[in-house]
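FORM 7B: Structural annotation worksheet

SECTION A. Query
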Amino acid sequence: MSTPENNLRLDYLEFATRDVAAAKKFYTAAFGWTFTDYGPDYTSFTDGRLAGGFFSSPDAPTKMNPIAVIFAANLEDAEARVQNAGGTIVKPTFDFPGGRRFHFTDPSGLELSVWSDIRADGTKIG
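SECTION B. Predicted structure
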């Protein structure tokens, strides 16, 4: 990571959560993320490209965390996966200049978003 092209780039995301075990269960089921535990109050995740962590905090904010945005080639499939894993859609799919996205909360109330560059008619944006 100490190469010039990685200088000042987002490298790792950490989220406060009220329940580390529930976060692991949800993100494994919804997106297939893998985890490495570092004690009961911290787990590190990877999605195959980006890494981050969840740390235990009884007063973890739900709306004040950054909104992480996850890319999905098939937005409808991602939405179904979120719901099947126990997530709640809090902002239904909407169009924006770069594509479409929806927002959801995980079982602890943390809000994230999923986007795709495929329009509802199946055409790619850009």
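SECTION C. Observations
The longest strand covers residues 88-96. The chain has a mean pLDDT of 88.

SECTION D. Sign-off
Analyst initials: ____
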